[in-house]
From TrEMBL:
GO terms, molecular function: structural constituent of ribosome; zinc ion binding
Ribosomal protein listed as a keyword: yes
Coiled coil: none
Cellular compartments per GO CC: cytosolic small ribosomal subunit
Pfam families given in the database record: Ribosomal_S14 (PF00253)
Keywords, in A-Z order: Ribonucleoprotein, Ribosomal protein
Family: Belongs to the universal ribosomal protein uS14 family.
InterPro entries in alphabetical order: Ribosomal_uS14, RIbosomal_uS14_euk_arc, Ribosomal_uS14_sf
Protein known as: 40S ribosomal protein S29
PANTHER family cross-referenced by the UniProt entry: 40S RIBOSOMAL PROTEIN S29 (PTHR12010:SF2)
Protein's GO biological process: cytoplasmic translation
UniProt keyword Manganese present: no
Amino acid sequence: MGHSNVWNSHPKNYGPGSRLCRVCGNPHALIRKYGLMCCRQCFRSNAKQIGFIKSFYYFVYAVPLKGVEICKASM
């Protein structure tokens, strides 16, 4: 019984090697948040179908709101 017969002979039920992408089976770059369990490549290609919307929150600060006055501090 050589080393190659013993290496990874027992199934791994814990850690990063135990989880796979539910779409393609890739064990790397897995997104587990919200129970997605898919890799980042599959998430990017299926994000709209899942219902995710890309947020552009940095534009909120660049666009002035109507009816809101910005008061400047007097020097």
